[in-house]
Amino acid sequence: MIGVLEGVAVIGVIVLIGYLCARLGVFGGETANALSRVAFYVATPAILFRILSHADLRVLFSDYMAVAAVSAVASGLIYLALALLFFRRPAGATAIGAASAMFLNSNNIGVPVAAFVIDDPQAIAAVLVLQPIAFTPVLLAVLGATSGTPRSIGRVLTQPLRNPVIVAAAAGVAVALLGIELPAVVEVPVDLLADAAIPVVLLAFGVSLVGRRVLEPGADRAPIIAATSIKAVVMPVVAWIVAEPLLDLDPAVVFATVVVAALPTGQVIYTYASRFDRGVVLARDVVLLTTVAAVPVLLVIAALLHP
């Protein structure tokens, strides 16, 4: 479990630095929004392009991808059903809640977990490809459509072309499919910007915690509890059902897919929520709570399923 502990520790230290800087007055009230804009328009597109341009897209047709896709979609649908039945919220906030229940922290926790716990990078590679290609464009389209700005039909249809995250993901997939060798003058700046993505997002997240309590009373409390429970518990259970009883996969693959499904919500959801000002508190609390819950959940999975 050293990979889990290392991943959580890295997140905690950088978030704490952002929090302390805000508490000490080094960062002002608009810093979190400014950092989130940097992440959305520059750093996140760079890291997505880097990941996808070097990805082995054959994982799209692997057992890992099948389990990851079914468990994520099921988790999102369960949240949507609960939202419609019990806590009706605006469409943008509901989209953020569903995303919080299904998007994994595939980079700064997923990568060390794949290296130290699973010892199978293909398990996390499936999620690294799946989320930006399949899920992110849908989420951003919903958030853009509910932003409250009047839009013509042409502007709605061309919206994906004006979204830096979607454009970067599409460009990365194209480079991987075509086998293009990028020159250093392109790849080096992209790598430098990509390296900034995770710390920028985590610093913004730490700044956002100042003056706020987790699970504050209000309309967001029930959605936060629902999204956290689904992400931390339901999603890995669904992954196990798909991997073992349904597909009868090798025990090592079952273990790997369930561990990946138990990863906490990715901080990128907070970036999207901040950028569109939809479900910001919900995203922030679910990211924090699922990150804390990940350690005991992963320990239980290791005790029960480790081959």
From TrEMBL:
Alphabetical UniProt keywords: Cell membrane, Membrane, Transmembrane, Transmembrane helix, Transport
Similarity comment: Belongs to the auxin efflux carrier (TC 2.A.69) family.
Places the protein is found: Cell membrane
Protein name stated in the entry: AEC family transporter
Gene3D superfamilies: 1.20.1530.20
Lipid bilayer topology: Multi-pass membrane protein
Superkingdom of the source species: Bacteria
Main location: membrane
Membrane-spanning parts: 6-22, 34-52, 64-87, 94-118, 124-145, 165-186, 192-210, 222-242, 254-273, 285-305
UniProt cross-references to InterPro entries, sorted A to Z: Mem_transp_PIN-like, Na+/solute_symporter_sf
One matching Pfam family: Mem_trans
Residues in coiled coil: none
